[in-house]
Amino acid sequence: MVLYADTSFLISLYLSDAHTSRVVAIAANVEFPFVVTPLIELEFTNSLKLSVFRKVLAASQAESVLAHFNQDITDGFLRPGPLPTVTFEKALQMAAKHTGQLGTRMIDVLHVASALTLSAKRFYTFDTNQAKLARVVGLTVIAG
Predict the structure, then answer these.
(1) What is the largest CA-CA distance in the chain?
(2) Residue 32: strand, helix, or coil
(3) What are the backbone dihedrals phi and psi of residue 142, each rounded to the nearest 5 degrees, phi first?
(4) pTM for this predicted structure
(5) Using one digit for the tens of pLDDT, what is the confidence trace for 35-71?
(6) Can you tell me the distance from the alpha carbon of 131 to that of 144, in angstroms, rounded to the nearest whole number?
(7) Where do the domains of the chain lie, and which CATH numbers do they carry?
């Protein structure tokens, strides 16, 4: 079964925030791995580095989290997955059909399209607009 966790969910798994206790409870019942696309890896890394820039995290903390994230890929807790070209076509179709009603951001549409093109069965997120879109297109949303 393909499990897709967006960056909001993964950040809460690796850093303590308002959602961490919920993520830990959910993770205790998940049959891993979560798929990690280049999109997720990019957004996760950028989020950490942006937190350093904003002085929310020390550079050493961000590097430690990235090392843990990469080790989890190596250990199979997270599984690298592709970002098929068809994902962008699917995202364009979803944006044209749903963004006017739901107000989803481009990155949210891309995450949901990624989950669909990878045949994910569950979609883990704390982003409420992204969760709405995921539900509308038939994904089972956890946490959102």
Answers:
(1) 43
(2) coil
(3) -115, 135
(4) 0.92
(5) 999 999 999 999 999 999 999 999 999 999 999 999 9
(6) 6
(7) 2-142 (3.40.50.1010)
